[in-house]
Amino acid sequence: MNYKNEKNLTRIIRYSLPLLTIIISLVITILLFLENKRTFEQEKKLLNSEFIKENKKNIQEEVERVYNYILYMKESTDNSLKNQIKNRVYEAYQIANDIYEKYKNKKSKEEIFEIIKDTLRSITFNEGRGYYFIDDINGIKHLQPLNPEFEGKNLLNYKDANGYEFVKTISETIKNKSERFDTYYWYKPNDLKSYRKISFYKYFEPYNIVIGTGEYVEDYENEVKRKVLNYINLIRYKNEGYIFILDYDFNYLSHINPKYIGKNALLIDDAKNIENVSKDILFIAKNGEGYYSYIQYRKPSTNLPTKKISYVKGIKNWNWIIGTGFYEDDLKNNLEQKKKEIDTKFLNYISNVLVVAFVLTLIFLAISIYISKLIEDNFRIYKKEIENQQNILAQQSKMASMGEMIANIAHQWRQPLSVISTAATGISFQKELNSLSDKDFFEATEKINDSAQYLSKTIDDFKNFFSPIKNEKLTNIKELFLKTFKLLDAQFKTKNINIVQNIKDIQIVTLENEFLQVLINILNNARDELVKVEYDRFIFINVSHNEKTAIIEIYDNAGGINEKYLEKVFEPYFTTKDKSIGTGIGLYMSHEIVTKHLNGTLSVQNYEFTYKNKNYKGAKFTIEIFI
Question: Which reaction does this enzyme catalyse, per its entry (predicted)?
Fold first, then answer.
């Protein structure tokens, strides 16, 4: 832009912009006044219906909140009950063990056993329902406080109400020297009906017995119901808002008026046509949820008849009706107050608009005079900023590429460096103790050399990762796994991880070193998850083939992957681990290697299986390589 044009543009902005600013401010002010006057009038007309909708939404949200709380408590009943009875059995086990340790050198085993039985017999809990029992491997009942006539009898072939031989399960628990939960149907005292019962047994080695206890789910669920109702009775919202609960027989379980609780709504007669109202509400609850309007004779705050709109929802398994509502007189009062607020708001709005418009006009007039002087300087600054930004972006791109490469190399080097460190430290320690044999020395140095060679190869692998030229060779999968185990042996042994192999002798033409990287990444991933579990740690490897593919399955018993993360495990930089453990690049690279370089597929799923009569769940990675 030349100087003459710049001067003309500045002159135009200096004189035309202030005039345009004034005109625009006036037009906007007038339009805002007319538009907002129309809007406020429409708002007043729609206020009634919108206010009802808002109140309906509020009471629905309150009911849904309580419903979700009840649903959570209801669904967690079994787990909470299991935790409770398990803790009880652990307490009894500790008591028995303490008694045994105290008297084992002072009394005979028979005398100690009697002390244990007498001690546990005296302990009850859960309002007298809970007690401990003791069974041996032959099904003989040694302790049964509520039914002492069973003590000393063989109940091995005893069946519950559905024909389930639960005593044999107790015997199996003793054989396995383990602990377990069990569910069966049993009778309460003086009751011919059977009820679902959850029990927990724990093996006690000194006497080859189990100590156990149990609880009827219904009894525990009744306790949960009492807790839920105690909580709901405390809920208040928006001054007089409360939650009421009826059972399907119209008995009040929760109400703002404590005198109503335990009484039948039909007898209280707190609503016009109470029988029809109750039937309608019950129909809505049994079919899900909905709104209902009726006349309530006594509003809690005024004790006067008032129209009420309620929202009710049913919980079928508990036969409960949950509800809350709002009153029409509150609606009218709030509505009138709201209309007054709208009128006041409109007047304040117009006043504010006029003040703001005047102030903005003055500001724009001052700014418009100054703008012409800054246009050229701002343009030059803007141009310079663009150049700086381009330089920064270029530098960031370089650093990102470098950082990604360093992260990938660091991820691949972590395990070999750990092997080198472990082997070197081991032979140094053995040398200090004069216990270093030639065999141990050469095994350690061989591991160090193998790992060093792998470190050396890693650089070339990363450099040629996306290169179209790769050196394939005939590779034995069994031997490839042996190389893998050799590199990972120290880490897996220190973590007490057992590898169960079923590997067939299969030869394929492939990129051996890249295949090795994939196996290491998957096994390391399994290792990182297994160290989090306290029970036995296993990794299972199955290798088979058909006419077209070699199939490699690697799975563990670490509990599996959260379903919401299952589809993301092969995404770059996705990880659920701490940053000190993983970067999220390993499985992504493995997937890239298998699909782009090994002519195969890599998939993952959660897998449930049984091993040595125990049920497990873990993540299962499946590699299929086309032969």
Answer: ATP + protein L-histidine = ADP + protein N-phospho-L-histidine
